[in-house]
Amino acid sequence: MELTQLEYFLKVARMEHLTKAAESLSITQPALSHSISKLEAELGVPLFERKGRNLKINRYGLMFSKHVEKILQEVQRGKKEIEEHSNPDSGVIHLAYLNILGVDLIPNLIRDYQKLNPAITFELSQGDKGTILNQVEEGQSDLMITSEKPVNDTFEWVPMLSLPLYLVVSADHRLAKKPSVSLGEITGEPFVGLRHNCSLKNSLLTRVHHMNFTLASTYDAEDLQTVAGFVAAGLGISVLPKTAGLNIDGLKWIPIEDEGWCWEVGLHLKKERYLSPATELFVKFIKEGFSLG
């Protein structure tokens, strides 16, 4: 059973005349007659009483037409909803992002984009790197803003910003007054780390490994905000990007002398994923180099 068959049936049911219905549908009368006969054969009952080219809908046809009307109405609603969501001027952009980015980067990005495109809306989800990756993999989000580059060529990576990483200590720590520090100086210090689902942990461990020193891990927090809180309380030191969500009282941010210590944030998008026109324009906005106002 095809959608066009249902549309043809409903037109004939309303007009009760094959020739007039065929003209209204811009198809030939034999083609329309064949479509109706095929539908009746599939249902196993006649839908009309025939009197030449005039047709009179019977009780089976009336019974079936009530359901067909509902089906076609739902199809039209579905088409309209898709058009509204994908419209480049007034569509919906489905975006996932890391929790920490919800403090400043994401709100500012959305604000600046909606200044240029006021009818665009966003469907947002946030979480750790595993959560937001699943959102994209399962098709619930089309885009992901995160701090870890793709590990394979399934995703495209669009750099957005790069922030320096700092050694963070409590205000009364022995290093608190230093203008800068080499990370070799923190060997053996109690270190507040991150659990497996934070992308900064992988980056940190790779850098530490290359510098041939170890971290004396004391706590492993679930997120960067908790890390900052533990450090401010004097329970250890850590390495963090200086973002709005982490800038709390009691922390001292010390520049790192070693090269390459930065925190990159970028856009992930699946290369083979269909993107609506609205989403394509948002990706173009980021690729052309957005600047947060």
Automatic annotation (TrEMBL):
Ranges for domain HTH lysR-type: 1-58
Domain of life: Bacteria
InterPro entries tied to this protein: HTH-type_LysR_regulators, LysR_HTH_N, LysR_subst-bd, WH-like_DNA-bd_sf, WH_DNA-bd_sf
Alphabetized CDD domains for the sequence: PBP2_GltC_like
GO cellular component, one term: cytosol
Any one GO molecular-function label of the UniProt entry: DNA binding
Keywords noted in UniProt: DNA-binding, Transcription, Transcription regulation
PANTHER family named in the record: HTH-TYPE TRANSCRIPTIONAL REGULATOR BSDA, HTH-TYPE TRANSCRIPTIONAL REGULATOR YBHD
Family: Belongs to the LysR transcriptional regulatory family.
Name the record gives this protein: LysR family transcriptional regulator
Source organism of the structure: Paenibacillus protaetiae
